[in-house]
Every structure is written in C-alpha cells, then in structure tokens.
C-alpha cells in the first residue's frame, strides 16, 4: 500500500513540476494508530526527499480530527494558506484526475488578485495547462448528428472551499 501510494504521489509531483508547477509543498501525515506508528520508517523510505512525512505524536490531538478529515483525504491549500479543496475517498485516489486537477486549479487561480507569492512565469504555465485541458474536453465533446444539432458544454465546475 505504501509503495503504490508513494509511487503515484511521486509521479504526480514530477509530472506537475515538468509542466512548470514548481514550489508546491507535499506533506503526508502518518496516522496516529500503533500500526501506522510502527510502519512510519517504511512510509518515510517510500517517498522521495521532496515529500515531507509528518509523524503525529500519540499524545497530540489527531491532525485529521483538527482538519475535519480522514486519513485518506487530500487537503489542497493555495499559496496563501487557504484551503481550496478537501478531497475524500473516492476522489482522493491518485489513479483518478481529481487530485491533479485540484492542485492545478489551486495553483493557477488568483483568488485574491495580485499575490507576492506568485511565480514569475505562472501565467504562461497556467495558460498551457488550461489550453491542454480545453483540447482534451473538445475531444470528448459529442459531435452533432443530423437533425439534432446542439453543443454540450463539458466545462468543469470549479468549487472553492474557503475555511
């Protein structure tokens, strides 16, 4: 389980970095349970140095309880530290596109206008991501047939969750 998750998370990290999405922090929070505590070293060894593994102290309040989440959730924050997406199962499976798309949206959208945390070339990076997503959607869009000719809008809905 550790190996599959860590491989997919590392693959996603590298893919996003290759697309120009840099300076993203990835943190894995290890569960507080005794079994997870004993396996912490395996989890830590299964991810690259670019992904932080946080070990909860058994005596502290559980991080997931504090964040109103569960151990398999992805919480995606923008560069200003605001929660943009909270993805639980099954949306947190890395084999689906939800986590990747949520990271891209959080990275590219300017929720509060000009931001001192913006990367210099972010506009070009985000424009390429949007263009690529639009091309994929166009491929999926049904073609009109004969008498029944109308377009279906397959744009994704963007939901921001601010806490």
UniProtKB/TrEMBL annotation:
Keywords: Glycoprotein, Secreted, Selenocysteine, Signal. GO terms for molecular function: selenium binding. One of its GO terms (cellular component) is extracellular region. GO terms for biological process: selenium compound metabolic process. Residues 3-162 form the Selenoprotein P N-terminal domain. Coiled coil: none annotated. The keyword Glycoprotein applies. It is found in: Secreted. Residues 141-163 are annotated as: Disordered. InterPro entries: Selenoprotein-P_N, SeP. Residues 149-163 have a biased composition (Basic residues). Signal peptide: none annotated. Its main location: secreted. It comes from the Eukaryota. This is SEPP1 protein. It comes from Dromas ardeola.
